[in-house]
Design brief:
There is one protein chain. The protein has 244 residues and is an alpha+beta fold. It has one domain: 3-Layer(aba) Sandwich (Glutaredoxin), CATH 3.40.30. The chain contains nine helices and eight strands. The strands form two sheets. Strands 3-5-4-7-8 form a five-stranded mixed β-sheet, sandwiched between helices. A hairpin with a 2-residue loop joins strand 7 and strand 8. The longest helix has 29 residues. The radius of gyration is 17 Å and the shape is globular. Belongs to the thioredoxin family. DsbA subfamily. Keywords: Coiled coil, Disulfide bond, Membrane, Oxidoreductase, Redox-active center, Signal, Transmembrane, Transmembrane helix.
Length: 244
């Protein structure tokens, strides 16, 4: 790692650095007990997973429902490397890979992306990860056609530690700016069904642990588990091999 990369890492939120291990462009967690912060997880290994073991029904997704390839994308709304992967991060040099994956594979009907939002950073950093995961499910239920625009807005709004974005009040304010979403209806949905959504978010997190997903961002593609905000070329190689 060169000097510039090392310097960039230190500008990431201090609580993220303290709570997790920054490895290969990912925030990594203890796979056996994500709530304690003790121990160190091993690096996820490609070839030890299978997309068919992932629950995809009822989860947020983009793309053709019958696309030949499905990607399960595990993320946390408070994870800076997830922001880097989705929309770019000014302190992380790797360009965002997701826009090119969408352009070349999702928009062409070849790939469906299923979003699996975990709560790896709760309760280490408060409840914002869980809150984001709850709103994620509520927005998908009410406004699936506007879901991805909302998701992009969420990651664009992600700020540094102590910046204040990520609690219910700040997400409510953001929702009012996203086209196609009635912020009041989303708030009412969250308030009415928070317990159900929290349970589902925790089930997604438990599923990640069971499958060996212990870092965000992580993508399961076929039998490959790819962790980290990697370059588009890394994903292109795996996808092209599956689509041959």
């Amino acid at each position: 790692m060169d000097t510039n990369d090392t310097s960039n890492k230190y500008f990431l939120p201090a609580a993220v650095v303290a709570a997790g291990l920054l490895i290969a462009g990912a925030v990594m967690w203890n796979g056996s007990n994500p709530s304690t912060g003790s121990g160190q997880a091993g690096s996820p290994q490609a070839g030890e997973v299978d997309i068919n073991e992932v629950k995809t029904g009822g989860e947020p997704f983009i793309g053709d429902a019958n696309a030949p390839v499905t990607i399960a994308f595990w993320s946390d709304f408070q994870c800076p490397y997830c922001k880097a992967f989705e929309v770019g991060h000014e302190q992380i040099p790797t360009p965002p890979a997701l826009p090119d994956i969408i352009k070349n594979y999702v928009d062409t009907g070849k790939v469906k992306i299923v979003f699996k939002d975990v709560v790896f950073l709760s309760p280490r950093m408060g409840t914002d990860s869980l809150t984001g995961a709850v709103y994620n499910l509520a927005v998908w239920k009410l406004y699936p056609e506007s879901y991805f625009a909302w998701r992009t807005a969420m990651f664009n709004a992600q700020d540094e530690e102590g910046g204040g974005f990520g609690d219910a009040e700040s997400i409510d304010a953001l929702n009012a700016t996203v086209s196609g979403i009635d912020a009041d209806k989303v708030t009412a949905e969250v308030n009415a069904n928070r317990s159900e959504y929290e349970q589902r978010a925790n089930e997604v997190t438990a599923e990640a642990q069971r499958l060996g997903v212990n870092a965000t961002p992580s993508l399961i593609i076929g039998t490959e588990l790819i962790a980290g905000a990697r370059s588009y070329a890394d994903f292109q190689t795996v996808l092209d091999a599956l689509l041959r």
